Amino acid sequence: MTNSTHLYGQLFDFLRQYSRARDVRHLKALAWMVSALLCSGQLSLAAWEPYVPSRATKAQSVERRWQRFLVNIRISVTALYVPLALVALNGWQGQRLYLALDTTVLWDRYCMIHLSVVCCGRAIPLLWRVLEHGSATVAFGEYQGMLRKARWLLRHHEDVMLLADRGFANHQLMGWLCSSRWHYCLRLPCDVLLHGSRRYPATVGSLYPPLGEARFYRNIGLWVDGEHRTNLVLATVKGAKDSWAVVTDEPPTLQTLWQYALRFRVEELFLDSKSGVFELEESRLRSAAALERLYLVAAIALLYATTQGMAVQIAGLRQQVDPHWRRGISYLKIGLRWLQGVFHKGRELLTPVPLLPKDPQPVFASKRAERDFYDQIWFSRIRSLSC
Fold it and tell me: What is the predicted pLDDT for the residue at 223?
């Protein structure tokens, strides 16, 4: 048995145990696609042919197998992937779960909405949707269903916080968050009106503090009507391009800024999906439904490789694939390098472990990078106001 076949066997057993498929042939095709993606590192149907044993003698026949999977309306992305993600979150009860909501645009034609779990310096996909929409800004109705589904799936997690950028700050989302049990950290655009900070309503941009200062506002009203009351943190950080304005339902503190900064982990996910690891834009697909199913392959590969990397860390084998004295690369890349060693050097294929709620060894490429990270934000003055 070849190493690629052994990997396929582990993936197929993993999918068959947890995923809900209408036909076992869907699981077989999906397991081969994920295995070929991990071997090739490319989300290109034509690049998978050398890694999949088949009776077909023409590469076009192999590629058509994957094309049939991508256009099959009987294949449910949620039913295949969500059970795997929930199993990976075992052991997170009692821990705060940070969800990052963001969008990315492909070829200036398709917008992919991501709802991801922040974990150990990276983000792991939970739910996603692809729209034929050339802008990264989408209406609340386009992702409301994702939020409802995520709230149902994570109903056993009592402590969930949603992180989102300026493009998602609107009346509808605030109303939905107020009716749910979720906490939130949302960044506001500079033109949002605030009530209570002064005698008359003022825009966020007019209240930005000077460089190196932060201000905390409690019980402030948002937008023209001032209906939504929340807490606000304004900060101007040295070295940052823009000042930050973050609203939260919790008491405003410097911790609010740290929590919102976790949202940037999803940028690493986009980089890994596009050019960093799997080259999503090389797929050349021009169908929203097909892109959703193709990203299913990428999401499973991301989750599997990350849990493989965590298994390598727990087993004490990290330094075989990571040249740094302390961990200097992500668990995803540790897992991918270990799998490449399985294919080419005969390493043992480890059993994936659930996602770690706490990082046993935060990643820094050097001591200087670690020092810059912890010494990056300093404030000379902090004010707290009650509106």
Answer: 85
Tell me the residue ranges of DSSP E strands in 29-169: 97-106, 110-119, 122-131, 160-164
From CA 352, how far away is CA 364, in angstroms rounded?
24
Q: Are strands 213-222 and 229-235 parallel, antiparallel or unpaired?
A: antiparallel
Q: Residue 183 and residue 161: Cα distance in Å, rounded? A: 4
Res 4: pLDDT: 64
Strand 193-195 and strand 213-222: pairing? antiparallel
- 256 burial class (0-12, 13-18, 19+ CB within 10 angstroms)? buried
Residue 360 gets the label, from left (phi > 0), alpha (psi -120 to 50) or beta, of alpha
CB 186 within 8 A of CB 178: no
Higher per-residue confidence, 3 vs 372: 372
Report how far Cα 212 is from the mean position of its chain's Cα atoms.
Answer: 30
Task: With a cut of 90, say whether residue 307 has pLDDT above it.
Answer: yes
Residue 229 phi, psi (nearest 5): -100, 135
pLDDT at 87: 93
The helices-and-strands tally (H runs, E runs) of the chain is: 11, 11
Establish how many alpha carbons lie within 13 A of residue 264's alpha carbon, considering only the half-sphere containing its beta carbon.
Answer: 5
Q: pTM of this prediction? A: 0.91
Q: What sign does the CA torsion over 24, 279, 135, 187 have?
A: positive
